[in-house]
Amino acid sequence: QNHIRILEASAENRAALLVGLEYLIGISYVDDTEVFKVCLDYWNVFVLELFEAHNQMEPAIPAVSM
User: Fold this and answer.
1) Please, are residues 13 and 7 in contact by the beta-carbon 8 Å criterion?
2) What is the 3-state secondary structure (H, E, C) of 7-63?
3) Neighbour count for residue 35 (Cβ, 10 Å)
4) What does the pLDDT look like over 8-58, one tens digit per residue?
5) How high is the pLDDT of residue 34?
6) Which own/partner contact pairs does 42-47 have at CB distance under 8 Å and 24+ positions apart?
7) Sign of dihedral through CA atoms 7, 49, 28, 3?
C-alpha cells in the first residue's frame, strides 16, 4: 500500500503489481480472521484511491441526441 505509486510508474512494475494483487485476492480467501482483516484494510484503501481517481477525472461531455 505504501509503495503503490512506485509500482504504477512503469509497465514492468504494473505487471508485478497485477501479479501481487492476484496473490492478495487468493490470500483474501484464507479462513484466518486476522489475515482477512489485513486484506480488507488494503482493499478498502485501494478502492478508495480508485474512487477518488475516478472522481478527479474530467466529466464526460454528454452526447446530444436528436
Assistant:
1) yes
2) HCCCHHHHHHHHHHHHHHHHHHCCCCHHHHHHHHHHHHHHHHHHHHHHHHCCCCCCC
3) 13
4) 788 888 888 889 889 988 988 889 999 989 888 988 988 888 888 778 876
5) 92
6) 42/1, 45/1, 46/1, 46/4
7) positive
